[in-house]
Amino acid sequence: MKLNKAQAGRAGGLATFGKHGAQHMREIGKRGARVFWERYRLEPVDLADFAIVERATGKPINLLYNSSKFLAAQQTKTAMSRDNSSRHNRG
């Protein structure tokens, strides 16, 4: 029987844990968290929601707590900056 993606991932993780142990898993988890925070930041949305935002570009990557208002605000900002730049370029 063929494994689905989740089953294959679980099997691989268990095999890695069995081969390398808990300390190795802790170390790769910490490394992954460090890289995540170097690349991304959290931005508050409303009172209790957050968005994961790419540090380099400011582009929202994902939403925590399913906040759609952040994406709407980002789209509005993008549209407004496009409008402003097109007005400035008309000469």
Jot down its keywords.
single chain, 91 residues, alpha+beta, 3 helices, 19% strand, elongated
Spell out the blueprint of helices and strands:
Elements (H helix, E strand, L loop, with lengths): L4 H16 L1 H18 E6 L3 E6 L5 E5 L4 H20 L3
Q: Estimate nothing, just give the exact number of structural domains.
A: 1
- Specify the biggest β-sheet: 3 strands, antiparallel
Largest sheet, spatial ordering of strands: 1-2-3
Instruction: Note the overall shape.
Output: elongated
**Structural class of the secondary structure composition?**
alpha+beta
What radius of gyration results from the CA coordinates?
A: 20 Å
- Poorly predicted tracts of residues: none
Report on the structure:
This protein has helices at residues 5-20, 22-39, 69-88; strands spanning 40-45, 49-54, 60-64. It is elongated. Helix content is 59%, strand content 19%. It contains 3 helices and 3 strands. The protein starts with a helix and ends with a helix. A 3-stranded antiparallel β-sheet has the order 1-2-3. The mean pLDDT is 85. The protein is of the alpha+beta class and 91 residues long.
What's the gist of this structure?
The protein contains three helices and three strands, in the order H-H-E-E-E-H. It is α+β, with helices and mostly antiparallel strands and about 90 residues long.
